[in-house]
């Protein structure tokens, strides 16, 4: 992510709340004002759209001690930032896995089916937030909804 967005990380020390108090306060504010009562959504996409809407609605607010609104402060920050990369960052984990004799590929403590022709083959698994893609070389051989449980098996009878 650092090389995609061209920034450098700066970690704070463990158990040093004084180093990140501002961030902790902002997380608390967002939780209390955007997530209470606890919302329910069918997907992360819907949740993200809700949070974006709430954040945009909060931009006209003036933070105590500031002379400008959050929108004006954000505009100043944005002018000082680099442009976003042309290609979108895709948050996912990619791993090499071998399909079992049952044509199952294990990823993140769950099993996902692949066509029987790929049993005992090395495959590439790309696990995103909502979807798993399993490929052989450049060909995608199976896709499944991401299962966030553990020790679950997801089959696709259309293989």
Task: Write up what this structure looks like.
The chain is an alpha+beta fold. It contains four helices and seven strands. The strands form two sheets. The chain has a four-stranded antiparallel beta sheet with strand order 1-4-5-6, with no helix packed on it. A hairpin with a 2-residue loop joins β5 (131-136) and β6. It is elongated and about 65 Å long.
What would the keywords be for this entry?
alpha+beta; 159 residues; 4 helices; 28% helix; 22% strand
- Kindly report the average pLDDT value: 91
Strands side by side in the biggest sheet: 1-4-5-6
User: Can you count the helices?
Assistant: 4
Based on helices, strands and strand pairing, what is the structural class? alpha+beta
Distance between the termini: 34 Å
Task: Outline the biggest β-sheet.
Answer: 4 strands, antiparallel
Helix fraction bin:
25-40%
Model regions low in confidence, pLDDT < 50 over at least 5 residues: none
Using the CA coordinates, give the radius of gyration: 22 Å
Number of strands: 7
Give the oligomeric state of the chains in this entry, treating copies of one chain as homo and distinct chains as hetero: single chain
Overall 3D geometry? elongated
- Order of SSEs: HHHHEEEEEEE
What percent of residues are in strands?
15-25%
């Amino acid at each position: 992510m650092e090389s995609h967005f061209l920034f450098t990380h700066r970690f704070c020390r463990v158990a040093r709340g004084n180093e990140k108090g501002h961030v902790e306060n902002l997380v608390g504010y967002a939780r209390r004002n955007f997530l209470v009562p606890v919302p329910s959504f069918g997907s992360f996409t819907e949740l993200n759209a809700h949070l974006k809407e709430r954040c945009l609605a909060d931009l006209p607010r003036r933070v105590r001690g500031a002379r400008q609104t959050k929108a004006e402060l954000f505009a100043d920050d944005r002018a000082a930032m680099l442009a976003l990369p042309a290609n979108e960052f895709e948050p996912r984990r990619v791993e090499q896995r071998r399909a079992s004799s049952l044509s199952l590929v294990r990823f993140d403590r769950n099993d996902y089916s692949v066509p029987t022709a790929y049993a005992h083959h090395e495959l590439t698994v790309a696990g995103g937030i909502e979807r798993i893609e399993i490929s052989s070389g450049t060909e995608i051989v199976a896709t499944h909804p991401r299962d966030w449980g553990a020790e679950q098996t997801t089959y696709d009878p259309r293989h």
